[in-house]
Structure formats: C-alpha cells, structure tokens
Amino acid sequence: MCGYLVVIKLINILVSKVAFLFFNFQCIMMLVSFLVSLRLLKKSSLFHLKYFPLYTTVGIVVMIPMLLFIYTNLKIINLEFTFSFADLINNYSLIFNFSFLGVFLIINMPDKKSYFILWILFFLFLIGIISSILFSAKNNPNNIAFAVNHFGLIIFSIIFFKKLFYNLPEKNIFNYSTFWIVTGIVFCSVVSFPLFYFVDFLIKSSMYNEDNRLFFNIRPFSYGVMHIFFSKAFKCSA
Fold first, then answer.
1. pTM, to two decimals
2. Alpha helices, DSSP H only, in 38-78?
3. In the CATH hierarchy, which fold is given to the domain comprising 2-237?
4. Which DSSP category does 78 fall into?
5. SS3 of 20, please?
6. CA triplet 192, 94, 215: central angle to 5 degrees?
7. Which end of the chain has fewer beta carbons closer than 10 Å to its terminal beta carbon, N or C?
8. Measuring CA to CA, how many Å separate 84 from each of 65, 70, 95, 118?
9. Closest C-alpha among 195, 194, 126 to residue 156
10. Nearest-5° angle of CA 168, CA 122, CA 131?
11. Rounded to an integer, what distance in angstroms lies between the CA atom of residue 54 and that of residue 93?
C-alpha cells in the first residue's frame, strides 16, 4: 500500500511538471510567432497574412490571466477569481479564434467552388460555439465549445488540402505560406479535438485520474506546435 502511494505521488509530480513544461512551451511559441508576425506589418502586399499580427496579439492577451494565475504569489490578487476570469476570457476568445481562422481558410481556398456552402458551414459552426458558451457555465473551461471549434477547423483544413493538391501552385509548396498556416491549424485541431470532446465524459465517469491526466495535457503542446508552423509561414512571407 505504501509503495502504491509513492507511485501515485511520483505520477502527480510528473504530471504537474510536464503540464507546466507544455504550458511554458505554448507561451514561448506564441511569443515567438507574435514577434515574427510583426514583420508582416511592413509587407502591405501580403493581404492574406497582414492581419495575423492581430491574431497573435489576441493570443498573448488571452494568456495573461492564466500566466498571472500560475506565476504570481501576490496576495493582492485573488487567484481563484483570476483562474475563473482566465477561463471566461479563454471561452469567449474561441469566437474570435474560429472566426479568424475559419475566414482565413475559406478566403484562401485554392478554388472558389462550393464557396456558398463553406460559408453556411462556417456560420453553423460559429453558432454552435456561441450557443455552447452562452448556455453553459461561463467561468469554467467549455470543452464542448473547444471541440466544436477544432472540429470545424479540421473540416475546413481537409477541404483546403483537397483543393490544394488538385490545384497545386506553381512555386514550391514548402514556400507557400498558407500551406504552413493550415498545417499548423490541422495539427493542433486533430490533436485537441478528441481530448476536448471526451474529457467531460471521462470526468463524469470517474475515468479522469492521474494515470490519464498527462495525456490530456498534450493540448497546450499542440498549440505550441501550431505557432511553430505559423512562425515558419511568417518567415516564408517576410
């Protein structure tokens, strides 16, 4: 029994350390992509990327409450309130996240076939995200809204790649900035979607424990990798 408790304690330590490492990785990669994206402001001809500094700026702002919660020990700050506020901001930021990336994917489709259907799908997913946020607890992580966000982006990314490989650009695809952006989006969404979708079920079924919590902490890692792909895209265009 004593040995079992020691193992559980070691797992707890490992999980917390890895989760902290993944979160820091996400923050660092977001900062890097933000700094690299600032170079796009000088490139007025890059219409399809010129608004990405706004996206990376919003990402940094959204992370600030969580950074305060994790790093600050100041007694003047109510950490419980800060954590709830961080979840609130994170939930509502999904509306911006899906709107920005969804519109980016649609307007950068290699061809404009089924354009009207894509916009209908976009608004259906957006309504699903907004409804999920409005009709659930505002100050808790809204895993269903995150799942809808990632599922919608997966659908649009698959359509993009299908159209891309049927209409390959004349230049090297690896120098094609939009290719790297969409690769980052689809990587993050494919990793994150099942984690957000199943976490509520596992919590309710008491299957969400220290043995599998490490698995769910892959999510910030996937966001960090997405921003690496974004930085690659910005460098291709800068």
1. 0.83
2. 52-71
3. Rhopdopsin 7-helix transmembrane proteins (1.20.1070)
4. -
5. helix
6. 20
7. N
8. 9, 13, 18, 35
9. 126
10. 155
11. 13
Residue 175 in contact with residue 233, Cβ under 8 Å? no
Q: Is the dihedral of CA 83, 88, 89, 90 positive or negative?
A: positive
Amino acid at 176: Y
For the chain, domain boundaries: 2-237
Both tokens of 21, joined, read: 């490492």
Return averaged pLDDT per consecutive 10 residues of the chain, 238 residues in all: 51 64 87 86 64 86 76 52 66 91 91 87 95 77 89 95 79 82 95 83 58 65 92 78
With a CB cutoff of 8 Å and minimum separation 6, the contacts of 24 are none
CA distance linking residue 127 with residue 152, whole number of Å: 11
- A 10 A CB-CB count for 155 gives 17
